[in-house]
Recover the amino acids of this structure.
């Protein structure tokens, strides 16, 4: 795990309220701050299927159903190498969208950047109960990091 990611997480980073105005895929959204600034947010600790891979469109739709046109609290963790804000999205009822995507079987725990090991238990439960992408045949369950490396 990168020290920058940990430093950002431990530094009591910024949090702000925003409206979700766009869904890029199952782990990336656009939000509008009260200052009218648009911010691209990459959900922390998870990696959803790419749009072109099995379950990619369903993952995007699930995130949309969860957060689109809703007010969320953005808890900033860090900024990634693409300039995106990496953050937790907290729903009005207190649930984390990041965690809900794993719980519903619509994203993997991104082990390379994992900060909360409890997510592994949530992912294992989704897998055991064949929720979301875990209902696919074994040959179609491809972690996004493997999918991306094969597409290069």
């Amino acid at each position: 795990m990168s020290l920058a990611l940990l430093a950002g997480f431990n530094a009591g980073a910024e949090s702000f309220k925003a409206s979700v105005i766009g869904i890029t895929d199952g782990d990336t959204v656009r939000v509008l701050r009260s200052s009218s600034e648009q911010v691209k947010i990459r959900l922390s600790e998870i990696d959803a299927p790419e749009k072109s891979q099995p379950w990619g469109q369903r993952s995007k739709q699930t995130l949309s159903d969860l957060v689109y046109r809703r007010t969320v609290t953005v808890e900033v963790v860090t900024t990634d190498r693409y300039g995106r804000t990496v953050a937790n999205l907290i729903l009005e009822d207190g649930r984390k969208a990041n965690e809900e995507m794993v719980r519903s079987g619509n994203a993997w725990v991104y082990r390379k950047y994992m900060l909360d090991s409890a997510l592994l238990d949530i992912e294992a439960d989704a897998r055991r109960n064949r929720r979301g992408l875990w209902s696919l045949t074994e040959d179609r369950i491809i972690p996004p990091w493997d999918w991306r490396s094969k597409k290069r």
Summary: The chain has a mean pLDDT of 91.
